[in-house]
Amino acid sequence: PVFAGMNGSAIENFSCVIYNIFLMNCTWQPGRHAPADTQYFLYWQNSRNEEEMECELYIKDDNCRNMGCVFQNVSIGTEKAYFLVNGSSKDSLIQFYDEYIDLYKIEKLMPPSNITVNCDEIKNDCIIQWHQPQVSHSNKDKCFKYEINIRYK
């Protein structure tokens, strides 16, 4: 069967976020019914043309179990990326977990840069300017919405 392995042994709460333009962090929790010695391994494929790669830098919990991965130099393509986390244990077969993710949907945008404020007391107005934040994905011309919070002192 496709889902060979003990029920409840696959990872749970898998989530990823892209930040600082090219870093990606993925985390998960061990399966509720996974044996204590279960070790998990993450593989991912950024697009169908690229080969599947294992995580190079695992985040470990206190018991030295892999519970996440940090990726560097991630670029966001137009296809969904494929993630697979499988596990191994001496005692039993572990179910795998897999998911396709649109990377642009998990990008945490940087704040705008080069913010300048010029106020004219005579006209009683201010001009606020900034540069669009750097983004990792290719839809760079998408519309950005900004919210300015002005507090008078």
From TrEMBL:
Main subcellular localisation: membrane
Type I cytokine receptor cytokine-binding domain mapped to chain residues: 13-106
Subcellular localization(s) per the UniProt record: Membrane
Alphabetical UniProt keywords: Glycoprotein, Membrane, Receptor, Signal, Transmembrane, Transmembrane helix
GO molecular function per UniProt: cytokine receptor activity
SUPFAM superfamilies, per the entry: Fibronectin type III
Gene Ontology cellular component terms for the protein in this record: external side of plasma membrane
PANTHER family membership: CYTOKINE RECEPTOR, INTERLEUKIN 5 RECEPTOR SUBUNIT ALPHA
Protein name: CSF2R factor
Organism: Dicrurus megarhynchus
